[in-house]
Amino acid sequence: MSQKFFIDSLPPFTVKLLALFQKDKSSFLPDFYLTGGTALSLLLGHRESEDLDWFSPKNFDPVKLQSQLLKLGNLSRVELEENTLNAYLNEVKVQFLGYPYPLLGSLATWGNIKISSLLDIACTKVLTIGVRGSKKDFVDLYFLLKQFSLEELFTALAKKYRRVDYNQPHILKALVYFVNADSQPMPRMHQQIDWAKIKKEIIGKVKAIKL
């Protein structure tokens, strides 16, 4: 059974840029996979997302990557660090990041674009919320918790980030810390859900978890 992608969940300018990546024959793309909120929106179709986050298990030269991206359009606000490139490509925010953590699920393929699995996105999302949870992150977590239990996610987290010294009790507290997210706008939703219900559901899941 072929994977369904919710392309309509993305704004037109992001779809247009992804089409350029689809047509591009550069050698860098096979080393990266799409992840983050936009990858999740492609897989679930729950909300609009526009940024493109690309991870690679390999080290890469950001200066060389910059020259390759320039062939695809207007590249601006470029920030380069070791194994990292942040920029706007044709006004779409893009990130390319060396990410040495193992993939737990199989990559989906959309043409020549590889897309992270729901499980890997979920693990990264939980870790992100542990540092700083935005409203978009909590919205994503709500929908991911329809796919996985928190117990499953923490088991997967231990496998994926076994080399990371994360604090599990702290993450559990962060999963129900909504103070900063409360004042942020809701993302444009394709599956309607109330913010109060999202918080209630997540709080209930955290209270019920048995680790």
Task: Sum this structure up briefly.
InterPro entries: AbiEii. This protein has 211 residues and is an alpha+beta fold.
Walkthrough of the structure:
The protein folds into two domains: 109 residues, JHP933, nucleotidyltransferase-like core domain (Nuclear Transport Factor 2, Chain: A, Roll), CATH 3.10.450.620; 91 residues. The strands form two sheets. Strands 1-2-5-4-3 form a five-stranded mixed beta sheet. It has a two-stranded antiparallel ribbon with strand order 6-7. The protein is of the alpha+beta class and 211 residues long. The model has no long low-confidence stretch (mean pLDDT 95). A hairpin with a 2-residue loop joins strand 6 and strand 7. It is built from nine helices and seven strands; from the N terminus they run αβαβαβββββαααααα. It is globular and about 50 Å long. 43% of the residues lie in helices and 16% in strands. Helix 5 crosses helix 9. The longest helix has 14 residues. InterPro entries: AbiEii. It holds the Pfam family AbiEii.
